[in-house]
Amino acid sequence: xxxxxxxxxxxxxxxxxxxxxxxxxxxxxxxxxxxxxxxxxxxxxxxxxxxxxxxxxxxxxxxxxxxxxxxxxxxxxxxxxxxxxxxxxxxxxxxxxxxxxxxxxxxxxxxxxxxxxxxxxxxxxxxxxxxxxxxxxxxxxxxxxxxxxxxxxxxxxxxxxxxxxxxxxxxxx
Length: 173
Known about the structure:
It is a single chain. The protein is mainly alpha-helical. It has a domain at 56-165. It has four helices and no strands. Helix 1 packs antiparallel against helix 2 (72-112) and helix 2 (72-112) runs antiparallel to helix 3 (140-152). The relative contact order is 0.15.
């Protein structure tokens, strides 16, 4: 672009734009760290429905695991994963969410409250887990979905058992 004192006039033919073309645009797309999980049509999308699904799956799998011809240790592990998920998504998460506003209120008391008694932070007491649970590793839902595929490939699997377990998705309209 010419300067104001370069002697160029409006009709002199001097370029009034940039001397070189702009650099090409590089798309700003961050890399995807994990591949997206395959959608499971049978699994409830609403969080409020998931605990009931997990407890039903665990109870029915404990009953029907031998009929399906599955390894007992694998059935027990899947039942344990599902019960952990049902507890965590149900009672535990509900109490955590109820504890949050009260804890925030206590912080306001700490910051701006008055009184002569020493302040103590509230302590969250989680609900007791169902009896018989053993610790699980992270990734319980992914393991459960993988085990559902093993159940569907089992020699004793029928659609009736799948409906009982809740692992058959609804039919598409």
